[in-house]
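Handout, section 3.2

Students often ask what a structure token actually looks like in practice. Rather than define it abstractly, here is a full record for ABC transporter permease. The first block is the sequence as you would receive it.
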Amino acid sequence: MDVALTGFLDILISSGGLFVAFYLMALGHSIVEKSGILNLAIDGMFALSATLAFFADVYYGNDLLKSFLLPAVVIALFGLFMAFVVTKFPVSHGAVGLSLMFLMYGLSSVIGYGPRIVQATMPNFSPGISLSLEERIAGYLTMVALSIFAYWFIEKTKIGVSIKASGEDPAAAEALGVNVLASRLVAAAIGFSMIGLGGAAYMNFYVRLWDERAVILSGYGWLAFSIALSGGRHPLVVLLTSFIFSILVHSSLQLVAWYGISRELSYSLPFIVAIISMTIYMATPLRRLLASPKGLGRIYFREERTV
């Protein structure tokens, strides 16, 4: 029992950086989709934000401010573009999102190889920082505080209510005086910058290396997507699902050493659980209790008319 408890506590502590990354990405994604924007670009955004954090680490000497600020700003700009296009023009959210995702995969590959070559000439350099026990605990507590603040912001503030109204029925919200475009741009600025911060946290606090398998091919952006969906995009519930998946992902990497199972099988386990969790959400009363915005992904085009 003591050995099992010690092992669990070790996983809990070691996965702290990944938990911060998953929660920031899933919460940001939830805020974006609360406004009615279907975000299928999330995995590309994760890859690009982690790559930009690595780029800043190498070229600016592990300046964490720049390493977090650069991906947050760049991903927010992409997100603002996406929010503007899907609101002002009658275009498919999915088509825009997937196009941006593949664009960001390409940018990640192009941007990542340069600093990786430079890092090879710096044998004592490692991107990011190694978190102490106290810093990992502080990370957990900070995310709890952020979840409470996010719940208050979405449910109790005028801006949050406008964002939700824009996601439920943008036409009705517009008729009631809500500026749908402005509300979605605010949601995009907040949500997409958080996705950028999540990718930076993954690079600086957890993986601390760049290669295509660890970043572009990891699929962790899609895990953040499933974390948000299975948590009903509710800030407090998403906190729990982020916690579960961070432990699951981190422990799955240990299964190879512990039980000798294949690397491919251990890597696939979190994604299998993600499919199961989304199925449970869709097939149970959770779908009603934590319902998706009714206008999520629907084309909304406010055509100008003259009388």
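Discussion prompt for tutorial groups: The chain has a mean pLDDT of 91. How would you have guessed this from the sequence alone?
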